[in-house]
Amino acid sequence: xxxxxxxxxxxxxxxxxxxxxxxxxxxxxxxxxxxxxxxxxxxxxxxxxxxxxxxxxxxxxxxxxxxxxxxxxxxxxxxxxxxxxxxxxxxxxxxxxxxxxxxxxxxxxxxxxxxxxxxxxxxxxxxxxxxxxxxxxxxxxxxxxxxxxxxxxxxxxxxxxxxxxxxxxxxxxxxxxxxxxxxxxxxxxxxxxxxxxxxxxxxxxxxxxxxxxxxxxxxxxxxxxxxxxxxxxxxxxxxxxxxxxxxxxxxx
Length: 252
Prior knowledge:
single chain; mainly alpha; 3 domains; two-stranded antiparallel sheet
């Protein structure tokens, strides 16, 4: 469920049933956030926003978002609006209960000193200052994706999700341990012992060419290994054909 952890941290009554695509659910959450957590307007100034069934509610929302200085680039999509408002609500929740949340450090949460809603709120607060639409954030996501050869996408949140999946699959303890146990031992090859096969006068260019040659040979070796594995797999199939004894022949 989208925003599930943030909604639970804020103790939103409709956390389990919240549906971003449902208009009523969307409006009621915004009203609750303003009433219970953000409280930007005075009590008497919330009437238009509270009239969630009114045909003028969209206008009231736009005025509200402008008043609380929600970035204009975020107002175009409801998923960005909800995310921004939830982060703002969490920030205010923390500000109202600083002494309650101050001891909730990473070490205390990991050790089990805090758990449940309190731990969730503390963990989320550490991230609530991030703006997923900021140029720095987007640039960081895209640069990280390039490092691990993840394809670029115009929606940076999709790229971030792909990064999260990559990290979970490659960096969890089991994956790291498997890599350490199964990786081939490194071989040290002095460049002076590598034959280039070309006459090059510049020593730096010559050394660079040798490195490229070694890398090329390594790629060819990997390709040959994959070819051999494919041949073995194919042989395992062709060497064990189905036999229909009633027909007195081998194969289909």
